[in-house]
Amino acid sequence: MLKLALFVFDRTIEPAWLLAALSAAERDRYARFNNRKRGREYLASRWLLRQHLAGQLAAPAESLAIDYPTGAPPHCAAGGFYLGISHSGPACLCVISNTAHTGCDIEHIRSRRGDPRRIAEHYFHPDEARALAGVAPALRRADFHRLWTLKEAGLKTLGRGLAAGLRRPRFILRPALRCIEPPAPGDWSFAATEIGVEIDSARARFALAVAARTSTLAIEFERLTPADDTGRARRARLNTAWQIAIGA
Asked: Is the pTM of this model over 0.90?
């Protein structure tokens, strides 16, 4: 089972409401950020990951020991959880699993990112770039973000970033999602979707993807928001339709 959680750090939420859930070391690191945007991203991701784990382990969020090894996904020894984290602007996504290495990605779908065809030609496999160029313009940007998030989620499962390149893993989106070439040998599962979120009185759309080194896939998805200034979280189940690809 993959358990996903979403948090949107909009202007109605005070940073002080989140700090109580962080460890002392994380609070110290947050205080040292000079870049406000990077600091908010760090705070949001650590609060979400800790609160999501706390809900599974019935333990205080600030007490959990989370490891961030170089070249590997985060890990929590308590419960044996594999972890994944991603953020895009004010939106943050995390995934936890106690059965498989996992990764996730979230990207804001917006028009000012540039021409998807040109970016795909530069970063994606040639077959994917050609397929994207052949899609109707009204669908192209959403397809581009779906491919990007699927690729990043797969790479994060291996503890890799964009420096590893985006030609692999390789996918077909239509007529149904298929993984043509996984990030590494073995069993893999992928899922992708889109959601709309209200942020500061405006509607925004995000592409989401999750990857796991397993031959079976089940997903639970919830949204977390701070309940008060103690760092505790409210939880609301999200019912989302996912495109799923399973195979070696």
From this structure: yes
Pairing outcome for strands 2-8 and 219-226: parallel
Tell me the domains of the chain and their CATH numbers: 2-247 (3.90.470.20)
The answer to whether 148 and 165 are in contact (CB under 8 A) is no
Residue pLDDT tens, the chain, 248 long: 899 999 999 988 999 999 999 999 999 999 999 999 999 999 999 999 999 999 999 999 999 999 888 877 788 988 889 899 999 989 999 999 987 789 999 999 986 667 899 999 999 999 999 999 999 998 999 999 999 999 999 999 988 877 778 899 999 999 999 999 999 999 999 999 999 998 888 899 999 999 999 988 999 999 999 987 777 899 999 999 999 998 76
3-state secondary structure of 219: strand
